[in-house]
Amino acid sequence: MPCSLIILAININFNYYEILTHIGHSGKVLVMKVFLTVLVLIFGFHSWTYGDDIRDFEIEGMSVGDSLLDYFPKYLIDEAINKSSSLYYKNKKYVQIGASYKKVYKLNITSKTYDDLSIVLKPNDNSYKIYSIGGRIFCKDIEICKSKKKEISSDLESFFSDEVQIQNIDKNHNADPSGNSKSFTSYFNFKKSDAYALVAVYDWSNKFEEEKNYPDNLKIVIVGEEFGHFLNNEQY
User: Fold this and answer.
1) 129: which strand partners?
2) Residue 180's CB: how many other CB atoms inside 10 A?
3) Which of 38, 82, 116, 225 could form an SS bridge with 195, CB 3.0 to 4.6 Å?
4) Contact (CB, 8 A) for 40 and 60
5) pTM value > 0.85
6) Domain count, the chain
7) CA-to-CA distance for 85 and 33, rounded, in angstroms?
8) What 3-state DSSP class applies to 156?
């Protein structure tokens, strides 16, 4: 492991124990999960020292460009795509499906680092190539999520260095016309492509939490070049 990775792991570990002295049990559980998430990111980015290829980054062992068939049976992926909860993008060019350790999902993973994953595919692609992957951690305490988001963003900024342009956007969430739901997002846009990564906290209004069952969450997303180009030029 490069020295820079060792130093970062030590720094994160120190912050983790420092925070544990100031929070209760439920907070400890959340911080532990976020701490594990950061470690997964660190050790998953096996070519991170070069920082110029989004395909080197992993969430739960999966990377942009991988085939989802390497992780799940074809029939389960098809069932997930055909679920009413699947999210189709403009002209049904891409579809987002979910995976989780929770049994209500068609695609089950064993790890509980994330509460669920979001995976973007092309609906009629027989290779089932992954174009984007993200992981969510649900928040019991939104302030802890915001704090960890800042730490993760700072560490990612150090790793990416000059390879990305960083954009921080805090705003009312577009899905909630009342203006009571907020998003806090840091984008890490690769300068040489449309690929990017993001770290975000979504703070939903009480109404959305109760009526729509939208949980507050911390989310980490990896977006490949092709899907990033689609989002920037076609979807919106």
Assistant:
1) 67
2) 14
3) 225
4) yes
5) no
6) 1
7) 26
8) helix
